[in-house]
Design brief:
Distance between the termini: 24 Å
Order of helices and strands: HEEEHEHHEEEHEHEHHEHEHHEH
Number of strands: 12
Radius of gyration: 19 Å
Structural class: alpha/beta
CATH superfamily: Aldolase class I
Strand order of the largest sheet: 1-4-5-8-9-10-11-12
Helix content: 25-40%
Shape: globular
Number of domains: 1
Length: about 325
Amino acid sequence: MRSTPALRALRRETRVSVEDFIHPIFVVKDRAAAGPIAAMPSIVRLRLEELDREIETISSLGIKSVLLFGIPTRKDALASAAVAEDGIVSQAIRRIRKQARDLVLITDVCMCSYTDHGHCGIVRGEIIDNDQTIECLAKMAVSHGKAGADLVAPSAMMDGQVAAIRGALDAAGLTDTGILSYAVKYASAFYGPFREAADSKPAFGDRRSYQMDSANAREALSEARIDLDEGADMIMVKPALPYLDVIRRVRDAFPYAPLAAYQVSGEYSMIKAAAANGWLNERDVALESLTAIKRAGADVLITYFAKDAARWLAG
């Protein structure tokens, strides 16, 4: 049953499809901030006017969903640019929607790239003010929903953020705007390249006081249950490959819930670096890792390999 490609395909249990992919996009206003990201080969920060070509490419490859991250021109302690209705992400949504009406537009709802201190919320001294932060996150989600986002994706790991966002969306008449919650987000060393991409390195301390301890797995079930009870339409585990056991636990505990997994920047960059040195076959390792993530139980794969993987699967 393994002797030919056709026989192997006949008994294959897990299949990765282009429809599984969510492609992350970084959008900037400042021309000087646009361009390649050194720590993430082939990934670039795009200006608004460069989105048209990117969306055309994504659509031509059959990718149905994107996840938008915004990097503003100005930052402050209160992340003022995050809640502006003419903010960078809202402008990107409106531009993309004119071009690709059926593309699923998901927006990251977090303050780390909008604050001058790089943390995911408003700080008092060096402590995150949870309640004030969720008020800001709710306003940010509403601004994205009004612009036309299909799903907002809160990633700040603040207590009560999903309930606050759901309430704010409903109050604004955005009852059809869904929530993809970063329910299980670990304080991970694998985020390093992303912090260069989003210009979001903390100016002090770290994020261990609000993101999950990498040693904990049972806690993931509690976090996922809370977010589902608060109104999340889809939940996420992040990172992916180092937490396959967690993906499986969450899948088994909540078989009814759509489950995404984020193959984060560090996972992507390690494969890219090894491939550039001739130590690994990039295509084979990337596809194997995506298959492993889906085999563990993920329905949806957020990956920087989305465009390449779409080409590999088509070829």
